[in-house]
Structures are given as structure tokens and as C-alpha cells.
Write a structure and sequence with these properties.
Length: 110
């Protein structure tokens, strides 16, 4: 279906894939339930400061941030299945996006 096109190549665009069966967005939570490979998440630079959401990895496909995010340990990925992290855009100029929670810099999953 057209809604699933955003998952091709395992790249997730929050605006393009909100209706995907593999990704569920419920206002403040984005849930990834994907087992075939990792999923890259990019954050549109036009998202306003103050945006925040919870990211949940239900499947074994690791969720990996594709855009510039800041983390106290330089992590850009969720640890693995059943991991939870928060993504918050603090400022617009310069853009400051913080990822915090069950994160890692190591690859995992299929």
C-alpha cells in the first residue's frame, strides 16, 4: 500500500509513515514493530522546538536515528527489542535534538 512506501529501504519519515502498519503514532508515542532489518528514523528540520515523543522498539529491527541527535554518550540507536527512548527538540537555531533512554552506539538486531 502507499502508506507502507516509507518503510522501503527501512527509512522512516514520521510524516510519511504515520499510517504504516509497521509504525504506530499515537500523538506522543511512535511504536516500531519491525523484524526484518534496522529502521532509520529522520527528524524533519522544520519540526518546532518543544516537539517531544516517546519511541518504542517492539520488534527486533533496531531503531536508529538518521539525523543529528545529541546524547550524553553519543548514542544514536535504541538498545534492542522492547527499548524505550525519548526524543525532544530543544531549540530551532541552532537545532538541538536530544535522544535519551535505552540507547546505545552499537548495532543490534537482524
Amino acid at each position: 500500500a502507499a502508506e507502507d512506501a516509507a518503510m522501503e529501504g527501512t527509512v522512516y519519515d514520521p510524516e510519511a509513515a504515520l499510517m504504516s502498519q509497521l509504525v504506530e503514532y499515537t500523538g506522543k508515542t511512535i511504536t516500531f514493530d519491525y523484524d526484518l532489518s534496522s529502521v532509520s528514523v529522520s527528524m524533519d528540520s522544520t519540526i518546532n522546538a518543544g516537539f517531544n515523543c516517546l519511541i518504542v522498539q517492539l520488534g527486533s529491527g533496531q531503531v536508529r536515528m538518521n539525523s543529528s541527535v545529541n546524547n550524553r554518550y553519543n548514542h544514536t540507536k535504541l538498545v534492542g527489542q522492547y527499548s524505550i527512548a525519548t526524543l525532544v527538540k530543544i531549540t530551532e537555531s541552532p537545532s538541538l535534538v536530544i535522544l535519551s533512554g535505552d540507547t546505545t552506539d552499537a548495532n543490534s538486531g537482524p
